[in-house]
Specification:
The chain is about 40% helix and about 10% strand. It is built from 20 helices and 17 strands. The strands form 7 sheets. A 4-stranded mixed beta sheet has the order 6-9-5-10. Helix 18 crosses helix 20. The radius of gyration is 24 Å and the shape is globular.
Length: about 550
Amino acid sequence: MSIAASSALALAACSDDDGGDVDLDRQSKGAMDDFAADSQFTATEAFTLSVLWTEWPDLPITDSWQFFDEIEKRTNVKMEVTTIPFSDAVEKRSLLISAGDAPTVIPLIYTGDEDSFVSSGAILPISDYVEHMPHFRKYVEEWDLGEMIDNLKQADGKYYMLPGLQEVSVPVFTLVIRKDVFESVAGGVPQTWDEMREALVEIKAEYPDSKPLADGFEAASLLNYAAHAFGAQAGWGFGDGMMDDGSGKLQYTAVSEGYKQMVEYFRGLVADGLLDTESLTAANDGSGGGSVAEKFANELVFAASGSSGTAIEFAQALDATVGAGNYEVLQIAPPGGPAGQVVEPRNFWNGFMLNSEVAESEHFLATLQFLDWLYYNPEARELLRWGILDETYMKDADGTITLKPEYSLNAYNINPGAPTDIQSDLGWSNSVFADSTESRALKESYNTPTFVEYIDSVLATRTPRDPNPPAPLDEMELEQASLLATPIKDTVDTNTLRFIMGERDIAEWDDYVAELEAQGLQQYVDLINTARDRFEEENS
């Protein structure tokens, strides 16, 4: 009964809106009267919707993509895109939003990306309108995500982005290893970072020219998934730097004992030639594993950060050197550490924000319905990944999806060599929309059997950490926090790498902490904890 009650309350929290100032009688042009969960959205009157599109260097967008034509055919909605390059997407996006020039739909938004735009009124408080988004509400309830949605709330009690929903949540990035080498040289797959170190030492002895561990994402990926095992947050998961101190209060992770232990651990790997330092500093332009894939292929690296796509890239590189069938690449659960066999909290994936000007649009309700279908309808999600049923792919009675032989999905090594790639040639499986919301079945449909094993291993052997308690800031606090946090974070980033690379002695740790305190660290911590106390009081 308590579970049912909490689910009902969570769903109510998703929909306890006042509808804003929207006049739905005047702003429902093109909307469906009978739009409901698991139904197809088709605008009753065609309209055009502007979308911000991040362009990856190896996947240039083309007007001829079947993706655009088919979406328009099914929904009566034409996408008009503004493109920004991956290399500086965050900066370009911020400039467009701040200048009031952003398109209506702003995709590829992760939780926290919206924070800096709330106080300006540039983005829509979308929680006011989710009552008109039946797919979103259905899967928040079915996948038990209501409490996580509540944590999206800003200081005004509203949330300003809708995330991609995941039926099962495992770290997207983790370690990808040469399983055959780890087994033959080091005796098996490491389960902890201490075991990983022992294995790297043995591999280094067998392959003396190697630096067997690498990252490839400016250290941000490696530190992200490793930090949790040390009881810290780092890299991509650093966030605002604040984390639960165990008592319900928040502490700054980068001065915690766990963060220091993590830094010391990786410093030791660098000192012993076990960690490829180039892979910690080379810029990541979004084009893939790059030089790390080459080192993997040439047996200079045997474990590196990556996703399921990176694992495929490493395998393709090894095919050309070691030869197919002569190796085994495996994505493994992030190793455990002093904090236990833990991984990141259950998480969302990328979603979207809306330019607040959409609230003036005569197609406002139709826009909400279209995005609800695009992001959360199961058939739409399958369409975005695979293309058109019975044209680009087939589906058995048991739900098994098979790409037709004349089509490939090279990003996942499916039907390599087929004349038409559904991603680069047709626009399906694009990174702007396709990765957002996924059922477990859809996630498994395009991944390798080893990735399915990876999901099982994480769910069976690792425990997600509890999310940090929310501490949303009001407008004045956001401004103060930004002024304090940016220089502090710059100091953290610079010195984290300096310590790890050996450019700064770990004996100077107390001096580093003092430098942060001189930049106003305590003031920042007090600011966040004040917001935390207020939110707890108002939402207890």
